[in-house]
């Protein structure tokens, strides 16, 4: 086993343990020492992989990317790229709405605004952004979209809408279906590009 593989396993164990503890006792009530003890790692390992507890919470974004791999397995490339963007939006929002991590979204969004460290939600290397980029690029190449904007600019608008809706949904304490609201707004945006 290489050192990098071992480091990746330790990082994953720390993250999985932290998320389990966050779910069990809440983010605020979980300490770094508890995470270290339960994950059977060391303080040095913890701080090698994470700057602090806040960064563990930020990594929830990568947990969602694992689910996006499931969407990729079922993606139907015979339908238009624009329709797949609509379908992906529903998939994303349905997962947000039904995620056990939903209780962390308010903390996650609030801390991402205040942090001086990396904003994982905005990391362009995430599968989420790569998928949306690819679909917009394909929609432009297939002539499904008539615009002077680049696929990257279109992706930024699409993802900004999704983040904005998620933030509003958190502010309203999940009082409405983000899936239904997002379907209306994202579909209107995508249909305006035809």
From TrEMBL:
<dbReference type="GO" id="GO:0003677">
    <property type="term" value="F:DNA binding"/>
</dbReference>
<protein>
    <submittedName>
        <fullName>Transcriptional regulator, TetR family</fullName>
    </submittedName>
</protein>
<dbReference type="InterPro" id="IPR050624">
    <property type="entry name" value="HTH-type_Tx_Regulator"/>
</dbReference>
<feature type="DNA-binding region" description="H-T-H motif">
    <location>
        <begin position="31"/>
        <end position="50"/>
    </location>
</feature>
<feature type="domain" description="HTH tetR-type">
    <location>
        <begin position="8"/>
        <end position="68"/>
    </location>
</feature>
<dbReference type="InterPro" id="IPR036271">
    <property type="entry name" value="Tet_transcr_reg_TetR-rel_C_sf"/>
</dbReference>
<dbReference type="InterPro" id="IPR001647">
    <property type="entry name" value="HTH_TetR"/>
</dbReference>
<dbReference type="InterPro" id="IPR009057">
    <property type="entry name" value="Homeodomain-like_sf"/>
</dbReference>
<dbReference type="Pfam" id="PF00440">
    <property type="entry name" value="TetR_N"/>
</dbReference>
<keyword id="KW-0238">DNA-binding</keyword>
């Amino acid at each position: 086993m290489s050192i990098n593989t071992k480091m990746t396993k330790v990082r994953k164990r720390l993250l999985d343990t932290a998320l389990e503890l966050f779910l069990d006792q809440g983010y605020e009530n979980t300490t770094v020492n508890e995470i270290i003890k339960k994950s059977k790692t060391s303080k040095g390992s913890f701080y090698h992989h994470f700057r602090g507890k806040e960064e563990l919470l930020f990594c929830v974004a990568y947990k969602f990317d694992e689910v996006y791999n499931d969407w990729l397995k079922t993606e139907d490339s015979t339908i238009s790229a624009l329709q797949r963007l609509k379908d992906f939006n529903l998939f994303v929002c349905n997962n947000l709405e039904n995620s056990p991590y939903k209780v962390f979204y308010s903390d996650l969004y609030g801390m991402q605004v205040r942090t001086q460290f990396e904003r994982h939600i905005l990391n362009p290397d995430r599968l989420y952004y790569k998928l949306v980029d690819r679909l917009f690029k394909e929609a432009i190449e297939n002539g499904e979209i008539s615009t002077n904007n680049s696929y990257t600019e279109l992706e930024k608008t699409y993802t900004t809408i999704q983040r904005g809706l998620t933030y509003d949904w958190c502010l309203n304490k999940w009082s409405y279906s983000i899936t239904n609201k997002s379907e209306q707004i994202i579909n209107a945006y995508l249909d305006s590009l035809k």
